[in-house]
Structure prediction request, 617 residues.
Amino acid sequence: MSADSGPGLARRRMGPTAFLALSAGLLAVAGLAGLSIGTTSLDWRVVAQVLASRLGPFNGTFSETEEFIVWSVRLPRIIVGVLSGGALAVAGAALQGLFRNPLAGPGVIGTSAGAACGAVLVLMTGLAAHSALWLPLASFAGGLLALCLAYGMATSGGKTPLTALILSGVACGAFFGAMTSLLISLRFEDWQVASEVVFWMMGGLDSRSWVHVWIALPFVALGAGLVFFRSRELDLMLTGDESAQTLGADAEWTKRTVLVGAAMLTGASVAVSGILAFVGLVVPHMVRLVVGPLHRHLLPLAMLAGGGFLVACDIIARSAFAPAEVRLGVVTSACGAPFFAWLLLTRKPHLEGS
Amino acid sequence: MLEADRAGFARGGTWILRNLSVQFRAGTVAAVVGPNGSGKSTALRLLAGLLRASEGRVSINGRPAHMIKRGELARIVTYVPQSPPAVPTVTVRECVAMGRYCHRGRFRAEGEADRKAVGEALETMDCARFANRLMGDLSGGEVQRAILARSLATAAPYLLLDEPTASLDIEHSLSILDHVAAAAEAGRCVVMALHDLNSVIRSADFVCVLKRGTVRHAGPPLQALDPQVVRDVFSVESELLQGRTGAAFRFDPVGHADPCRRA
Prediction:
């Protein structure tokens, strides 16, 4: 036994670079598969030619229909999936770190319920039909409102104890959830609107276009930027508020930046793909198991892995019962919940306090 | 110099600590003692800049502690709370390396100076042997040493420790106290809250005795602590015994003094 080996090494990690290569590879494969698989099945070489000709000065042999399917139908769908899954995973990873709670996820500060409530409101009132911008804007507003309420309730004297924040976040989430149900039940006899809302709430990437990409992209970039900016403080926050401060982190500002960043990420994701359960909870744990809990590596890798996971789930959603589509939220839960159960049963020490 | 000048702290209208005036200089080991709830932890957290004094002031090298930014403060004063949460999924080395975050830019990777300081801290606290193990796999004593190593890695000249030997066995608590004394000899200033008066006599150059939020006695341990003080502050009868390796207290609860000895 060498001097620095020990029981800890037995369940030890893969290097971040190796995992980066692995998840980037998986994302590329899932992306290519996502572009090829569908009601009209395409050869991956045709897909590659379309991409090459659109992105660079290459000419390929493909029909206009093929180009349309790849570039205007499937590619935006996949990019929205990558953005949305990545956003949820980063938000979840950051919140789990901030709260030192393995059960934290984008839902824990009430933002996803608030975002859903905002979105349902515009779907119900018919505003969503006027412009594609209403839905994402309303879901951002809802998410931020929920965050502000939760933060305001938990804060006193310039300090926000994390346990208070988790409780007020859960309370806000429950309230906005109830409001959403109320809105739905008020218009339940209007079959078409109600089914649209219920479909949207199950999450999905169907008929996403470039508009949705441009709606989500700036918020995902900004939110991820805010959270990445605090990755060092997030490491220190793992050691507790006081230790973090004494090691040089401003605990209260760290909480504020990370919360706003996570709310932006969650809002962006809910706005363009509805509610997708378990992505923000399970993907960060998966990544943490492999590369450890330090956020400098965890956050970017969670983004990649979350994107890849969602694109893969979307392929399942499209092809499992083709030509019918399963709702994406159903697939993420159906894949995520068993994985989480397995994690709980086999890796308890990893979940404690991480 | 780390200095409190008539500093006090109140929470919810109740004074927890009043009129604390002490000065701590490099190269000394100071102990803060007192019964539970006497304000020891509050005193350390005031000195660490974690709490802002409600009256009086705490200053570090002449500057008020609350005016110094966290990042800079971390390089001057480091504080180890009583039983801080250990992160079970980081390795000991990663844990100790967190002590270096305050020394480099936000997105800078670990440099040569950081690696050297981490290595030295691991050596000093006798953690190098298990540097690559996960914190969650360590015993209580090993965790405590790793966390002390993290505070050494900050290279802060002032080290404030809240009960560093709580929950440790005799061997490990003695070894922690020796490491702490070595850190002071190397030019640091160590302030510890301690419960065990015999550890105080053994390791401290200076002791500050607190009761109900005020300093009752201060000075070198054998002057500030005698059976009379122990009875006043802790409500315990005691006897100071001289042994081969130094002095030590023997305690009896008040009213339960050994009848044989009295006869």
